[in-house]
Amino acid sequence: xxxxxxxxxxxxxxxxxxxxxxxxxxxxxxxxxxxxxxxxxxxxxxxxxxxxxxxxxxxxxxxxxxxxxxxxxxxxxxxxxxxxxxxxxxxxxxxxxxxxxxxxxxxxxxxxxxxxxxxxxxxxxxxxxxxxxxxxxxxxxxxxxxxxxxxxxxxxxxxxxxxxxxxxxxxxxxxxxxxxxxxxxxxxxxxxxxxxxxxxxxxxxxxxxxxxxxxxxxxxxxxxxxxxxxxxxxxxxxxxxxxxxxxxxxxxxxxxxxxxxxxxxxxxxxxxxxxxxxxxxxxxxxxxxxxxxxxxxxxxxxxxxxx
Length: 307
Known about the structure:
Elements: H1 2-29, H2 43-52, H3 59-71, H4 86-121, H5 126-140, H6 143-157, H7 171-201, H8 204-211, H9 216-228, H10 230-244, H11 248-253, H12 260-268, H13 272-300
């Protein structure tokens, strides 16, 4: 297992290098730039600003400079927010996004798994129908609709929760964003768990276990669940990378100071360094969580072995 993990980490380096290289050149080739505005800048001012950020150098030179700084942990300054570096923006916003995304993912996995198991055990019954209906609604109603309705009901009408804000991560400020981030993931997890559990319960070894007189708890918890949870584990890896790196919709609606809003603003404003920083962060998270998923596969399913 250790050799497999080391080999995966070694292959992650060229993968990350390829992602950074493609993103760097595709972004620079795209039309527009960080200093393009509705009112054109004075040519002298524009030239001075491009020189200050080394944008006057050949593209290959800019690329090598960026790689050199990246190896040293320097993501560069923000073009549109020059008072901050990219590292400072992520240092302040990423912990907030990770906190919200982590709670949303954990809640979705627990509740979605329980609902999926209940639906599978009561297939074609009213519980199954209710779970499928909830999952369908959760996966089809967009977040930008759920979030304002949540604010209207629980914030303005019932006045149980604040409409927005952060206040150093107070629990009442986290409930709304976490619920809105969780619902789509809960719907997917519930559907995955339901389908995989139904298939697992029909397996021959489960029928044999029932015939041998094992209790339902032993059959479901010790045998069926181990194989049924594998699709959910596969889904949890990319979902974790997406949730922990912020959601621009939820963070904007609830006025949460996460990093999700930085990503979209940087893309619209051609803030090259922030966009590249976002690419690096998302790529690292994706590689890391996919590695965790592969390791968990071997832990959960004894048939999986890594040389």
